[in-house]
Write a structure and sequence with these properties.
CATH architecture of the largest domain: Sandwich
Helix content: 10-25%
Number of helices: 5
InterPro entries: ConA-like_dom_sf, LamG-like
Largest sheet: 8 strands, antiparallel
Order of helices and strands: HHHHEEEEEEEEEEEEEEEEEEEH
Keywords: Disulfide bond, Signal
Oligomer: single chain
Number of strands: 19
Pfam families: Laminin_G_3
Organism: Hymenobacter segetis
Protein name: LamG domain-containing protein
Radius of gyration: 36 Å
CATH class of the largest domain: Mainly Beta
Shape: elongated
CATH topology of the largest domain: Jelly Rolls
Structural class: alpha+beta
Amino acid sequence: MKNSKVLLFFLALLLFGAVSVMSSCSKKDDTSTPTPTVDKAALTALIDSVNLGYTAAVEGTKPGTYTVGSKATLKTSIDLSTGVKNDGGASQTSVTAAVASLRRAVVVFKNSLIQEVSAANLVAQWKFSGNANDATANGNNGTLKMGYINDPAVVAPAAPVKKMGTTLPTMVPDRFGRANQAYDFNDGAYIEVPYKLALNPQAITISAWVKRNGSNSDNYIVSLDRWKAYKFQLQSADKPFLTVTTTTGGIDKDAESGVVGTSWTHVVTTYAAGTMKFYINGVMVKEWTGLSGTMKATPEPTPLAIGQQLPNGFYDKAIAGGQTTTVNGATVPDVDYYKFYGAGFFKGQMDDIRIYNRALTDAEVNSIFTIENTL
């Protein structure tokens, strides 16, 4: 009995060893590694979709087109992703990375789409395409007017005396040579736009194309109640100059090194509480910081003047809006509020004037220049 138990023990031991050897041999004989399945469906679908958008996209300089060169950049990303898709040895990690990379490229490409700049904040746009009408739906249409000049019969040191000019703004070719697409201003001629509170915002951007005719210390581009609201002009040194009246007082600044020549030039100024900027041909040339106050509404509704300091009916006019000033510490009516101190009007040509009710960014100003610099 004892011997049969020992025999059974050894038989079990031998059986266990055989199974172990068979298992060991099986592992040694099967040396192949299963090939992992790589899912390229998402990458393939993305490439197909992006190719459709790439084919349909058009490069240019106008809203609805993409900046020149943006398609080539996107095509490079498409080709790289296509290479990964066609690579039979590509790993799932490289496929996933290709999807992420192409999606990033699409975002960059979408950002290169040229759009109309801040349309919701565009208060008025005068394209001067045969008339002085506002191109927006806001109805800020202008009327051509003769304006005041200094009476040449009155010489210094006598105080200037106003005299009505004899010309209206006249249509001329624009910077692209197209007939009747810009206005020439001279001899006090200006465009008058009826007052609306929207034209007197708390922050502002003024954009215009100008071609000055000589130097003039009071080359007024746009003016609303002179220095009592805001005025944008070229000074005697031909530098863009902005005056705004804010809740904390008046601010006068110019572009310092920025000078406007006698050829067509894009000039822009912006003001928001704390900062005033000047741009020439899409590039910021001066930034003033540390300023304070939001822009104030003029106390008496005054029409906007394009190319002139004040509308005809307001020079030497009696005040009607409770305008006051301080004399010897006392607040008194400002009877000189609309006094004629001397003529201020633009000499030269202007086109494509915009007013926004916020300060545009550097990129937005550059976009306007890009859009308007070519046909």
